Amino acid sequence: MYWYLDREEPSEVLKRLSRLEETGALYKLKDEEKIELATHVMNLESASGKNFYQPNEKERKFFLAPFRVKGISGGNRSGKTATLVLDAVMQLEGWHPLQKANLLFLSENAKAVWVRDVCKRILDDGYWIKSPPVYGRVITEDYPNYVNKVVGPEIHKWATSTDVKKIGFDVERDRVDLWKNGSKLEYLTYSQPTEAHAGSARDFIYADEEPPRDIWIESGMRTISTNGRRTIGMTAVNGVTWTEEDIWQPGLKKQGGVYAIEMTSYDNPMNSSEIIDEIKSHCFDAVEIAIRIYGKRQARGGLVLKTFSVKDMIEPFELPESCDLIVAIDPHPVTPHAVLFAWVDYDGLYHSIIDEKPNIYFVSGFFKTGHIPGLVSLIREREKLLGRSHDICLCDPSAWNENQKDRYEKSVADQLLEEDLVPLKGSKDLSGGILKMNEMFAVEMSYDGEQTKTREHPQAFIFQDEFVLQPRRDDSIQRLKWEFLNWRWPNPNQNMNMGNRIRRPIDRDDHMAECARRICEFVYDSRVEPLPMDPDWMTKKVRLGNGAVVDFSNAVTNELEVGL
Fold this sequence. Notes:
It contains 17 helices and 19 strands. By secondary structure, it is of the alpha/beta class. It folds into three domains: 7-42; 47-94 and 132-292, Rossmann fold (3-Layer(aba) Sandwich), CATH 3.40.50.300; 310-524, 2-Layer Sandwich (Nucleotidyltransferase, domain 5), CATH 3.30.420. The strands form four sheets. Strands 3-4-5-2-6-7-1-8 form an eight-stranded mixed sheet, sandwiched between helices. Helix 14 (412-418) links the parallel strand 12 (392-395) and strand 13. Helix 1 packs across helix 2 (31-46). The radius of gyration is 30 Å and the shape is elongated.
């Protein structure tokens, strides 16, 4: 009898057995009564999942949600691993409620009316999943601590032992479990290269704890041809990461083919109040409690950009031909390139000039993978939509790739020059740039720690939406807003670098923010002015090949390196 049908509770069987043993009545039972009781006990030992698993309401809805990507953001001991392990075991053995035969049965016989209704809708829409034999994959942190001690044993705790052909999760050379019905389950880890996660198609892939984003994407490639599914369960010990935008934000709203739930430590009936209090005692602040008890994703450490406020974002406007348009590039060989456009207003056309410092408007941006010629083409296309070409191009210093092994290898800067895009090497002054950004976005300014001056407006703005609207969030200026709101310092107890007390923000999901920092530093420290004549390299001002002019008469900009 499956868990989603009405049947006798396993706990009642165990209570009865305990009472019989305590009173001595166990030995006075008739033979047929002993056989019946022994059968219950054997079922508990050999098929605890199929016969005795009791999901709570959140888990029932999770199992019946017909989504391609499903996730559980859970606190410690919330039951997320058991839930996702059961989801895998049910598929492998053929008793998952979303498999067609079970949907048909449940649509007529399920105890709960809502279950019958959901199953009928899924059948009408054709959203059932594959029945055995099923080929699945589990990916997690490592073999010694996670596969061998957590996930593997949990799989076989719930699996029907009489249906299992081979237990191989801890066999070093062949980490594959086999079932008699032809289903199989392999185990991989995040420490293995992305290429190891390629290969043939899989019917489902289950990630236990947060994987690297490239492995998650590669896992998605393995489930396309099978119309398979990916599931993920994690406690957000790393705070807010790429999973927030890719999984939890759409999933909790049931959007974009993603379904997600949050499970707390209180949802697990096996947790006593003493156990939960013990977990809390190891949490050093409210953020840690939110993560480890309530399954939330909370940003760790303090905000880097404390002065930025969403209420100061402004409506888009058409860019004038005057003043300067800056494009900043943060190129990456594997992950998407980050490109950010900012219009710099020296004349106070939209907001008044404060202390003779220009205003910066972040107007557009995108994330795209690809080769450098393709990236430049995308920049040119965006410029056409913006109605003007850039005047200045700033680039991450890594684009000059000074540590090349092959002296004939072209750096990113070399490739940009070949495409007639002349980059300036952006600043490396991380701490100085953060201070300048906080000053530019501030409305209230403190002087000498005592006096406070309130300004009419900040000197840096972000459009509420791009002047060039795009269909995908990753192509939107909203990404910059999201990074600003989640750009964090490490936890206080993780904030020191080998005793040197060097503070650096968490190096994750900050590509647009880094582009913005370089733009703010460049504008803060220099002013680019047009020249009516060709450049003379002996003068203080130089016009670059893209029309940009660098004023070297400023002592600060003397430190800028021109990528020629």
